[in-house]
Amino acid sequence: MEWWNSLSLPMQILWGVTLVASLIFVIQSIMTFIGADADSSDFSTGDSDLSGADGVDSDSDSGSNLLTFRNLVNFCMGFGWSAILLQQSIESVAVLMIVAVAIGVGLVAAVIYLFKWMNSMQQSGNIDLYQCASGCEGSVYLRIPAERKGEGKVQITINGCVREYDAVTDGPAIPTGACIKVVEVVNNSTVLVEEAGAMII
Asked: Which pTM was predicted?
């Protein structure tokens, strides 16, 4: 308390903002690594749910949007800590403020770049269904109606991973649990299949 009371009012405000921003940053980082989706509450981590489970990219990219709560926190933290740590080294208040603002902006830019890089890494790991699915085998999860009169669901193994897609067939209905083989890809979420061992005429 003696240390706190010895600070001037501007320094108390600076310390307060910096400590609060640092605490929020730590919470955001924890939420990011545990995969919590805090984006909807505006307590945004900006990087949750970078892409869909089946390789469909998410429209959300809060990390690259300049006007976000996360970027405000990052700026306040970078500005605050640099001003506090450099106040003894830089005598001119104007120069100190310029340097602190530059560091705050630099931290925001670094975080934006980090999230863009993470997003590109996630996208590069996505499966190209058109190239990978044809010929893959799996099983029926939900019954597939005959002659494309409806869609069922199948689970197929692609590159060692089991994934679920909508499925249609040109032949007779395929019951749940039956083994299937992918004949072709209809679209990004639907495949044409046949029962394993059967031949489509």
From this structure: 0.46
